[in-house]
Design goal:
Elements lengths: L4 H17 L4 H19 L16 E5 L16 E5 H9 L2 H11 L1 H10 L8 H16 L1
Antiparallel strand pairs: 1-2
Length: 144
């Protein structure tokens, strides 16, 4: 059976509408949120490395997690768990000297360290609506 022009047009419209309604995957939402959240952290820290206090910009500005995402997904988007570091401090100090990095963070941000140690063992599975809400929140924060 052959479709009429009207039926063909209706079918195309339904397909287009379905594409618009299809929500982003959780991984795409996380990727979008990671970018916004990173911008928020860099703005909060004044585009300055929290360790050496040098100004940072572009690819030299790294939002760095204190408690890794792999250990505590619950703290992934918690601003208390992230600081802005320059490339050198992020790689050479934070990742290559973890004991020195932990001691520095404890001394520099004692209240944050205490909070993060209480929160790090909470398990979290992010829901779509939570990620969408955080995206809207950080969009407003970043864009002003």
């Amino acid at each position: 059976m052959k479709m009429s022009q009207y039926q063909a047009k209706e079918a195309r419209n339904r397909q287009a509408l379905n594409r618009l309604k299809t929500p982003k995957s959780i991984s795409k939402l996380k990727k979008q949120l990671d970018k916004l959240f990173g911008e928020y952290i860099k703005n909060r820290d004044g585009w300055q490395c929290c360790w050496c206090h040098k100004p940072v910009k572009g690819q030299n500005a790294h939002p760095s997690h204190v408690i890794p995402k792999s250990i505590s997904n619950h703290l992934r988007y918690d601003p208390q768990n992230v600081k802005c570091l320059c490339f050198h401090c992020h790689i050479q100090k934070w990742h290559l000297n973890p004991l020195e990095a932990e001691a520095w963070f404890k001394e520099t941000f004692p209240e944050r360290w205490e909070y993060l140690n209480k929160e790090k063992n909470i398990l979290k599975s992010w829901k779509r609506w939570e990620l969408e809400e955080l995206i809207e929140y950080y969009k407003k924060e970043v864009e002003g």
